[in-house]
Every structure is written in structure tokens, then in C-alpha cells.
Design a protein that fits this description.
alpha+beta; five-stranded mixed β-sheet; two-stranded antiparallel sheet; 7 strands; 51% helix; elongated
Length: 254
């Protein structure tokens, strides 16, 4: 329950692997307990047409080689358990890797341009390409961080400047979260009065002074939807009031 509540995927996978190992060891132990009954069942199924003397001799041979048969049972059960464990672990690693790559990339096709290129002309060219290409449904964009473009460090700080944390600031298109892969955006709370998605709310009159921040800052900086925090640029020491628009718990990251 703790892993599900905190959405801790690593802890959830460790628990799953522990349960899998326990199940495999339990099934191996169960095979030892069922060994004698399975031997008699297989012997009767294969030699039912023979006489009673042949079946009696076969049962005596099984009793005489009981230790060797038990070792063989353990060897095959552990080998099968190891193969199942490797296959399941490999499948989990592939799923985890795909999940991380999708979250890091955000979409199936991504173009990255240098920060000093003519971004406006590039956006116009891409929009024209989307309009001309039937297979492309839509496109969105994410800017370089403010710190990368201006060469200064950006920080979030409370109005009283008691808590200051470093944070990259990006601009996004109004359709950003509708273009990225679904399933990664988890909103803890957001403004619902306008009826627009959180990315489109940034382009409203109220959203022009707002920002989308992670739910981590809601706890560390004691913020809510009616709070105000400062965006601080160093070393120029310029502050700007910003309101939290929506604190998402998780999202696709570019």
C-alpha cells in the first residue's frame, strides 16, 4: 500500500520480485512433497497394461532410488524456477525501461533545435508541415529553460524569502499536454473555474501571471492555488511575483 500511495515504482518492483522469488521457492518445496504421488501416477499411466509383478518391481526401484530421484526433482524444479525468474525479470526491465524512456522523451517524435536558432521561423515551418501532412495530428513545443537562454540561474522563493529552491523555467504551447504521451500527468489540484486545460490556462489573463509547478513545492514551500511565490534570477537579483496555476504530481519530462 505504501508503494501505491507514494507511486514508488522501484519499491513496487522490489516487492513484486520478492513475492516472485518466494512463490518459486514455495513451488519447488511443493514439488518435493508431491514427488512420491506424481511418481506413482506416472508409473500407473505408462505401465497400466503390464502385470502386477512388473508394477511391483517398478515401485521397488523407485523406493531404492528415492534419494537420487529427490535430487533430480530439486535440480529440475530449481532450473525451471530460475528460467521463469529470468524471463519475468527481463520482461519487467523492458517495461520499466520503456516507461522511463516515454516519460523522459514525452512523445514518439521529438525535434530539438539549438537555443540560438531562429525558433520562430522553425515553428512556422513545422506548423506548415503539420497542416500539409495528413499523418501528423498535432504538434506542440517546449522552450529552452530561461536559465539556458539568459545565462542566469533561476530560483523559486517564498514572498518572505525564507525558502529558496532552484528550478528551471520553460514556456510551453497551449496544447502541450494534449500532444505528449498520455498517462504521465497526475494533477493534485488545479484551477477549474475557467474550464480550460492547465496548459491553455497559462494563456489566459490570469494564467499570464501563473505557473505550473510540481506538488513537491506545495509541501516544501507551503503553497496553494491562492499563494504567491517569487521567481528570482541570479546574479541580477530581479524578482517577479508568480501564482501557482496547478501543482502536478508527475508529468512527462523533456
Amino acid at each position: 500500500p505504501k508503494a501505491l500511495l507514494e507511486q514508488n515504482l522501484s519499491l513496487l518492483l522490489y516487492i513484486f520480485l520478492g513475492l516472485l522469488i518466494g512463490m518459486l521457492l514455495g513451488l519447488s518445496t511443493l514439488s518435493l512433497n508431491l514427488e512420491r504421488g506424481i511418481e506413482h501416477l506416472v508409473a500407473w499411466s505408462l505401465l497400466w497394461w503390464n502385470g502386477a509383478s512388473v508394477r511391483a518391481m517398478m515401485h521397488k526401484n523407485l523406493i531404492a532410488h528415492r534419494l537420487r530421484n529427490r535430487k533430480t526433482t530439486i535440480m529440475y524444479s530449481l532450473s525451471l524456477a530460475f528460467i521463469i525468474f529470468v524471463v519475468v525479470t527481463f520482461a519487467l526491465q523492458i517495461v520499466t525501461f520503456q516507461f522511463q524512456e516515454k516519460q523522459n522523451k514525452g512523445t514518439l517524435l521529438r525535434l530539438r533545435c539549438p537555443k540560438f536558432s531562429q525558433s520562430r521561423s522553425l515553428l512556422d515551418s513545422l506548423k506548415q508541415m503539420v497542416e500539409d501532412e495528413d499523418k501528423v495530428l498535432d504538434m506542440g513545443w517546449l522552450s529552452h529553460s530561461l536559465a539556458t537562454v539568459t545565462g542566469v540561474e533561476t530560483y523559486m522563493t517564498t514572498v518572505g524569502k525564507t525558502v529558496t529552491v532552484g528550478q528551471y523555467v520553460h514556456a510551453i504551447s497551449p496544447n502541450f499536454f494534449s500532444v505528449v504521451l498520455p498517462g504521465f500527468l497526475v494533477l493534485e489540484e488545479h484551477v477549474e473555474e475557467s474550464g480550460y486545460p492547465i496548459d491553455e490556462q497559462l494563456y489566459t489573463s490570469r494564467g499570464g501571471q501563473s505557473a505550473i509547478i510540481g506538488s513537491l513545492f506545495k509541501k516544501s514551500m507551503s503553497l496553494n492555488l491562492n499563494s504567491t511565490f517569487l521567481l528570482q534570477l541570479k546574479p541580477r537579483q530581479s524578482d517577479r511575483d508568480v501564482d501557482p496555476n496547478a501543482p502536478p504530481q508527475s508529468s512527462a519530462f523533456f
